[in-house]
Design goal:
Blueprint (H helix, E strand, L loop, with lengths): L13 H25 L5 E6 L5 E6 L1 H20 L17 H35 L6 H20 L3
Antiparallel strand pairs: 1-2
Helix pairs in contact: 1-2, 1-3, 2-3, 3-4
């Protein structure tokens, strides 16, 4: 028989609430940027960037709408996933003694990733809009910073000492 993990209702920490709210605000900002810029953009906008950050493909300005849709779906999906930490895969055995700590760390990981992904999508949306207006500017250093945070955040959250 499968070992049943405890199902706990762990209150969110202020930092988790803040990151949740900011992620939602970022989704709204992404939609607002798309709405405000859409009619003034050319039909063709940058839709792909090479490893050097330079534009290497153009496509329909409808891509902006899809960026906002995808951002919304990911943020909503991660919000739902964060509600069920007892269903996650853990590198340690979950017991009644460690469940609260491990669930809290896992939830913080999901919330952090949600915030960073929302920020990344807003950055990309802004880059596409500016690239369309300025004929293909690249992703720039901001992309590297956010992407780096997306790579490092899971390790920080999961392996920091409590």
């Amino acid at each position: 028989m499968e070992n049943q993990r405890p199902i706990l209702q762990i209150p969110k920490k202020p930092v988790e609430i803040t990151l949740d709210v900011v992620a939602i605000i970022l989704v709204i900002i992404g939609w607002a940027m798309t709405y405000l810029a859409y009619t003034n953009l050319p039909e063709s906008v940058p839709i792909h960037y090479g490893v050097d950050g330079a534009v290497d493909r153009y496509g329909s300005k409808d891509s902006l709408i899809w960026l906002s849709v995808l951002n919304t779906v990911i943020v909503a999906g991660l919000s739902i996933v964060a509600l069920y930490p007892h269903k996650f895969n853990f590198p340690v055995k979950i017991t009644h003694d460690n469940a609260q700590t491990e669930y809290s760390k896992a939830r913080m990981l999901i919330i952090s990733m949600k915030f960073l992904i929302a920020a990344l999508f807003v950055y990309i949306t802004n880059t596409v809009i500016e690239g369309a207006r300025n004929h293909g500017t690249g992703l720039g250093w901001g992309f590297a910073v956010i992407l780096g945070a997306l790579v490092i955040a899971p390790f920080y959250v999961m392996f920091r000492r409590r």
